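Bumping with the actual sequence this time:
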Amino acid sequence: MSRPLRILALEPYYGGSHRAVLDGLVARVEADWTLLTLPARKWKWRMRGSAITMAEQARSIARERATDPPFDVIFASTFINLAEFRGLVGGFVAQVPAIVYFHENQLVYPNRHTAEWDFQFPLTNITSALSAERCVFNTAWNRDRFLAEIPGFLREFPDHQPKSVAETVARKSSVLAPPFDPAAFDTAPPSRGRAARIIWPHRWEHDKDPDAFFSAVAQLAAEGLDFEVAVAGQAFRDVPDAIAAAERTLGSRLVHVGEPASREEYARLLASCDISVSTAINEFFGIAMMESAYAGCFPLVPDRLAYPELYPAEMRYSDAEQLVAMLRSLVLLPPPPGAARGIAEHRTFDALTGAYERLLREVAEVDSA
């Protein structure tokens, strides 16, 4: 009988979807997992320095194991510079084949202040991709944009500009969606009320554009339409002024604000909603929208970013005016629950764990028999 696959997972930003996907794989892929993680804060410092910390930790584990190699495959996120990690860890760990999973990429990440632009972050993604045996992206849009932006970025070099980097990365790139756990949604009882309820299930950050959402629902409120609004997502900074303004505009229509205390509570909230909305100006996949679709909401997403790859045309809007028009129609005639569930069903852990296990074994070159 073959021994279990030995996987070293490197996640310097152990929170949100990064943590959910990794924890789900650890629970479902039968293997000898070693997790090196850091808390999900100060992302710039994580990208700059996590290779130093994790290389030291990995060397210590390798010494304790006293086997060569100590792991069969490395599964890393883009928050670590894989090339730096391999250079610092040395020995047999440096030779372990590696997968880099791209939840996002820094080459197309929007920046609020161009003065803060730091070339190190996209360069970290590029050097990690070059160092890895396999690059896996959550969507084809993420992959294609990353590859398309590489040549222009490298032309910023004052001289000795690398050639054929995008082609090299493309040859070892593939797409595999980030799975989500549907258990809480399967057990949450539907509890939809008399009025249509609209949910915005995102973290409160500029790249999710909460102002665009509140502008749309404020217009519906001004028309006197009967509906409710729920806002559910993590807030990394104080937002009392924005919420106060929404309360003044929406009044009793605003029925929930804040991140639910548990996944079960989150599932119950989604089960009470009819429509979920994204107004993102940056999204590489959007697990929150996929979960809301599974939970029974009708998703409305912008016709940009990764969304055209994931949702049909009737669930996409082109601009703010069309968002208001589509919301108005759905409020006046709420969609049947579960209209979009089929979109999400094949992106659960049950559907995708096998593909991840095959990927890990293929890169590790370990017999799965």
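The tokens above came from a reply further down the thread. Residues 232 and 261 are 10 Å apart (CA to CA).
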